[in-house]
Known about the structure:
Strand order of the largest sheet: 1-2-3-7-4
Radius of gyration: 21 Å
Order of helices and strands: EEEHEEEEHHEEHHEHEHEEEEEEEH
Structural class: alpha+beta
Largest sheet: 5 strands, antiparallel
Distance between the termini: 43 Å
Strand content: 15-25%
Shape: globular
Amino acid sequence: MSSSFGTLFRISTFGESHCKAVGVVIDGCPPGLSLAAEDIQPQLNRRRPGQSALSTDRQEADQVIILSGTENGKTLGTPIALQVANKDQRPQDYGTMRDIPRPSHADYTYQMKYGIRASSGGGRSSARETIGTVASGAVADKILREKFHIEIVAWVSSVGEIDAGPIDSKAITRPDVDATVIRCPDHAAAAKMAKVVAELKEKGDSVGGIVSCVIRNVPVGLGEPTYEKLEAKLAQAMLAIPATKGFEIGSGFAGTRMRGSEHNDPFTQKGGRLGTTTNNSGGVQGGISNGEPIELRIAFKPPATISLPQNTVDFAGEAAILEAKGRHDPCVVARAVPIVEGMAALVILDMLLRQEARKAVQFR
């Protein structure tokens, strides 16, 4: 199983949903960065369960502990280990699901692949695993902001059939996003989204949605063609998040309905460099960043674990009715916002460090 991601800024996550702790080891963080738990905790707070009536009822403080890699509040350049304790586990809630694989969950595939699985909480397939992504992403985000002035903001742009209105991706901030419980900056749409999610939670059902993300102030030149194009690495990162089913950049699938004359982004002079008048490319051309904002959209399916009765079969192939127990999100998109931001930060920082290393040895 591969639990590592990145090249020069590399992370390895560990832990299952109901084990004693989850966390991450970061390798390649530059020395001298001011880093404390307080720099990481805000993003974990945005991801943690039990933060609102619209999320799972599991209560976890998700307090991060820095185990290694810093001294006197500064990074040493050595591996940084971050840990978060699991305190509100209820493995007994999963007793009836040991023999019945949950429809559209990873129970069946993990069991078939390994011959064993963590039957409580989904183990590594649980969104609990994303704590390591968010924690390490917060470190990457701090480096990007302080050293390179790069800004990453994600928000909920749809829940089910409810779409947010146009959002100014050049100006939106994280406080704008957090102004509503569903993390949609369109307050009218947010109210409708929250109502739908609350109703489905009461019924024991679930719904999907879309998280949009913008990455601003990215320099020209990030991306490693041919097989590690910037959009390819971003897609890999985003589709590694649990419950994701789709990825778009720039015009995305809507671009297939356009003519080239309409879709092309004409160049113009912008502050001493070439820029584009439109951004259908989404900030990436030929797999390399072009200096425009990188604009992404990630589709999340309805959470698979629901309490409504479902006709299915057990592992022996015998007919069964599954009424899942436990505490689960009726919609994951609000809590997915910091996960998307974290994954974006990990990709951009890793690609940026690779480009900086290339520039250091160029003969010009």
